[in-house]
Amino acid sequence: MTTNDLNLGDIISATVAKQLDASFVEKEVETRVSKLVVEAVDRALRGYSETAKLIEKAVEEALRVERLDLPSYGTVVAHMVKAQIEANVSELVAGRLAEDVTELLKLAPKEIKLSEIAEEMLKPHRDDGSYGSVITVIVEQNEYGSTWLSLDEETHHEGARAEYQCQHRILISKDGTISGGTIDNRDLKSTKHIGRTYGLGQKLRAYFACGTKIILDEDDVVTSVGDY
After folding, report:
1. Residue 60 contacts by C-beta under 8 Å, 6 or more apart in sequence?
2. 49-69 pLDDT, tens per residue?
C-alpha cells in the first residue's frame, strides 16, 4: 500500500502506533499517572466533583487514545492507574484531612458572640459601599429554653415568615452550642452533603463540629450599613 492509498488520518495512526511500543507506553504512563491521581483526589476532596469511586474511571478516560492498534494499551493504563491509586490515595486523603481539621479549628473559637457574627456578616457590605438593611438576623426563643437563629449574609428578609427564607437556620441549645438546623438550606446533620461550604455557612459548620458556644448577647441585632 502506498502513501497515496492512505488518507492523512491513517498515516498519522500508523506512525503513532509504530512509535508507541510497550516500553515507550509504560515509561510515559509512569511519569504522568502519579500526578494525575494526585490532582484527581484533590479535586474530589476540595470541590463539588464526582465521588472518589469514579476517580479511576475519570483518569482512565483522560488517558484513552482512539484508533490505536495496541489492544493492550487500555489494560496497561488501567492497571497502572489502579496501582497508583492504591499506593497513594490513603496518604493523600490523610494529608488533606489533616489540613482540613487544622483549618476547621482556626474557624471555630471556643465561643463567639452573636454581635460578632453579625459584624462579620456586615463587613463585606460595608466594603462594597452598600446602604441600608443588607443582612438578616432573627432570634426566636422557644418554650423549651432553646433558641432558633436565622441568618442570611446576602439578603435582608422581612415579614411574618422571614426566618424561613434565610439561608441558614440553626437551633442553639441552652449551653450555647448548635444542636441542629439547616445550613445553606441543607440539614446540618445530613451525611449526604458533598463538597465544601464557604463563607458564613463554612463557619457555622465549624462551630457545630467543634462545639463552639454562641453567646446571644443581642436580641435586636444591627442588620444595616451606612447612615441608616
Report:
1. 74, 77, 78, 81
2. 445 556 556 655 655 555 545
Query: Which of 40, 45, 38, 36 is closest to 77 using CA atoms?
Result: 36
Decide which of 73, 107, 141 is a domain's last residue: 107
What confidence tens digit (pLDDT) does each residue in 186-198 have? 888 775 554 556 6
Query: pTM to 2 decimals?
Result: 0.55
At 147 the pLDDT is 95
Instruction: Decide: residue 64, CB within 10 A, 0-12 exposed, 13-18 middle, 19+ buried.
Output: exposed
Cell 497508583 sits on residue: 84
- Give yes or no: residues 202 and 219 share one domain: yes
Are 28 and 120 contained in the same domain? no
- Are 28 and 76 contacting, i.e. CB atoms less than 8 angstroms apart? no
Domain hosting residue 179, numbered range:
111-225
Q: Is 84 left (phi over 0), alpha (psi -120 to 50) or beta?
A: alpha
Q: Specify whether 120 is located in the same domain as 37.
A: no
* CB 107, CB 197: distance < 8 Å: no
